[in-house]
Specification:
The record marks 248 as: Interaction with DNA substrate. The chain has one domain (3-255): Deoxyribonuclease I, Chain A. 22% of the residues lie in helices and 27% in strands. The protein has helices spanning 13-27, 46-51, 119-141, 173-184, and strands spanning 3-9, 31-35, 55-59, 67-71, 76-80, 95-100, 103-109, 144-149, 187-189, 203-204, 216-217, 220-225, 230-235, 251-255. 43% of the residues are buried. It binds one DNA strand of 18 nucleotides through loops.
DNA sequence: ATGACTGTTGGTAACAGA
């Protein structure tokens, strides 16, 4: 059957609800992975999303982070976090998984890393390695899609200017190697088509007119296992325009 | 124009994001 899957770092679900709800009505995704919901436990807008036709599963912690999965095709076997998930020092709300109509879906928000010499960078690498380990048994159980803000640009073509990122996080060899290790576990990188220009960027800094100059990055990724047939995928950069947007655009993936 | 950051909080400045 056909299924439409989306992933979007909304940079505060409460602030973005006026953008998310009409977008859901226009785009009609069956499953939506959200990151940076920034919702406190108990403050998730379950009722508003139910009224829009979606069941919710959320992993919330308050001021930072927060991930969720929305579904209108059922949502069962919800797991928050994963086995041996590292923390800083305690595990944060960065991963949630659920089964939606036979598909195992993960929504992840990888630690930023800040700078390569920061303890947050080591945390990021250990988190990615542990995610890879946690995905191995999931892959054995059936088709899996891992969606989210990976906070790593897979190649130099995935940043607007590689020279501008010299010495910065998101582009280092160890980060890219961590992505390669996840792919090697049994995934394909579903590269979405950009709506405009050659670069499939998903994030543009709010500052200095970065968006209108198309100075972006591809750091939101969709990893699909064998058994998941992707018909098409695109970045909805229209959702990055207008009043009070997130700094990330959603990725929409049509599966069959 | 899609426009020059935006989100959070025992807040009103500080920090995080990437």
């Amino acid at each position: 059957m056909d299924m439409r899957l989306a992933t979007w770092n909304v940079n505060s679900l409460r602030s973005r609800l006026p953008r998310l709800l009409p977008w859901l009505a226009e785009t009609h995704p069956d499953i939506v992975c959200l990151q940076e919901t920034k919702t406190a436990a108990g403050a998730f807008p379950t009722d508003e999303l139910r009224a829009a036709g979606y069941e919710s599963a959320a992993h919330s912690e308050g001021r930072w982070n927060g991930v969720a999965i929305l579904s209108r095709v059922g949502i069962t076997d919800v797991t928050t976090g994963f086995d041996k998930e590292p923390g800083f020092p305690d595990p944060e709300a960065r991963a949630i998984s659920a089964t939606c109509d036979g598909l195992r879906v993960w929504s992840v928000y990888v630690p930023n890393g800040r700078t390569p010499d920061s303890p947050h960078y080591a945390y990021k690498l250990s988190w990615l390695a542990a995610l890879r380990d946690a995905l191995t048994p999931a892959l054995a159980a059936g088709p899996v899609v891992v969606c989210g803000d990976f906070n790593v640009a897979p190649t130099d073509a995935d940043v607007w200017d590689p020279a501008a990122f010299a010495g910065a996080t998101h582009v280092t060899v160890p980060e890219r190697e961590a992505l390669a290790q996840i792919l090697a576990a049994g995934f394909t990188d579903v590269v979405p088509r950009p709506m405009k220009g050659p670069h499939p960027f998903t994030y543009w800094d709010y500052r200095a007119g970065m968006f209108h100059q198309n100075m972006g990055m591809r750091i939101d990724l969709v990893y699909a296992s064998a058994g998941v047939t992707v018909e098409s995928a695109y970045i909805d950069r229209e959702a990055r325009k207008g009043k009070a947007p997130s700094d990330h655009a959603p990725i929409v993936v049509d599966l069959s």
